[in-house]
Amino acid sequence: MVAALNPVRLRRYLWQVAAATFLVAVCPILVVWWLRTSGTIGTAPLGMALAIGLSLGASYVGRAFWETRTSSGDLLFGELMVWGFIRRWRNDRRLASALQMLGPMNERSSASPPMTFLTRIRRIGGAARSQEASKHPAGLPYKVL
């Protein structure tokens, strides 16, 4: 059911996620570290500013390169960073779970009465709340995305 909505196989992008994250997040730190140990950069604020600039530049160049690729329509460049990839993966799993929870309600015929449909939605909402309450036993307020 989810495969029809989301045909993207995220595993095939793992090496690109690792490479993009390395180039945007790790390489600028390594360059600044090397410049700092060689004595080219003397102060930490200058090193931080240079690392930020290098990271932003790498991100800009990476995004421009990613947009020229034919497979770039499946993922945004921001989703190639590890944290964006994890967020995308979690959202895909949430969507799959929601579709599984809805089950036959997605294929509801027009002949079924509206009250039955609303009753099913209320039951699903109650099940979701009880499932979340079991995860947060203290009952603390939190925001569900």
Percent of residues in β-strands: under 5%
Q: How many distinct helices?
A: 5
Dominant shape: elongated
Helix content: 55-70%
The N- to C-terminal Cα distance equals 22 Å
* Spans of at least 5 consecutive residues with low confidence: 1-7
Radius of gyration from the CA trace? 23 Å
Question: Major β-sheet, in short?
Answer: none
Structural class: mainly alpha
Compressed to H and E, one letter per element, the order equals HHHHH
Q: How many domains comprise the coordinates? A: 2
Q: Mean of the pLDDT scores?
A: 77
Number of E-type strands: 0
Short structural summary:
Mean pLDDT is 77; it is low at 1-7. This protein has 145 residues and is mainly alpha-helical.
